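User: My notes are a mess, but here's the protein and S-adenosylmethionine's SMILES. Can you give me a structure?
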Amino acid sequence: MTVFSVKYSRGSFIFPSAQPAPHRSFSEEVTVLNGFFGKLASGGRAYVMGDPMVPNRKWHVYFASNESIFPPPRMVTLEMCMTGLNSESASVFFKKDDGHNAKQMTKLSGISDILPEMEICDFEFDPCGYSMNGIHAQVLSTVHVTPEDGFSYASYEVMGFNPGAVEYKALIERVLRCFKPAEFSVAITVFGGHKWADSWGRSAAVDGYASRSHVEQEIPGGGFMMYQCYASCPNYSSCPKAVKVAAPLPKQIMHCWEEVEESEMCCVVEKKGFTIGEVR
Ligand SMILES: C[S@@+](CC[C@H](N)C(=O)[O-])C[C@H]1O[C@@H](n2cnc3c(N)ncnc32)[C@H](O)[C@@H]1O
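Assistant: No problem, the inputs look usable. Here's the predicted complex:
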């Protein structure tokens, strides 16, 4: 089987020092990924997006494609990372003596209502935890839930949908209803031209949450990424305004990959076919 394209993405780890190799730093991960995919026609391309005002919330992305013209065809991807889950919402993802299983977790949590047409294969962990994969035609989605209090976490990812047929803000709100997190991030990746993605390239005002940061990054060939972090804010009028951070200008490109630790990256690096940068 030939790889057509690959994308690896993650937020900042909650416990970075607990990560085993090769996840001790993004540069280590990129080295491993380039070992597998760096020889694809596009070369490996890596980005770190984040707002310096929100230091523990960065979005790490790696792409490679067998097309020399990057990026691959039209595609929108939404990725949400949620922490501080509401304890009642999280309790759904604990097994119970009455045989409470993954199917009931999917229904009771509201996950089945996020995109009702999805066919879902769900799994409950023992004593708690939940994962599912969903499919409908070319649309794919996945959810993973760690419900334990103190380090609760849920992720939602969907790709391959028609952005004109799914309303961006409403989808985010259906996901939030399942978990009611204290904080969350949304990463949007658009391949195939900015305009095609309709409302998906714009920031969303989400009821009950304040946008804490908003970062945008153009991808060579017409692609686009947007990364937004939110924190719950019941009294919306007193919420601080979001800081909108622009994409880096070409003149900010610096060749300093080897000298830069991930924690202090402040530049864009292009070296031997891969690019890594932090957007400020
Ligand atoms: C949903 S699973 C992780 C799935 C997957 N690694 C991910 O996040 O993409 C994590 C939750 O399942 C629970 N769990 C129970 N048994 C587990 C196991 N054998 N492996 C991983 N997680 C387990 C953890 O305590 C946690 O609440």
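Helices lie at 26-37, 87-91, 102-109, 168-179.
User: Great, I'll file this with my notes.
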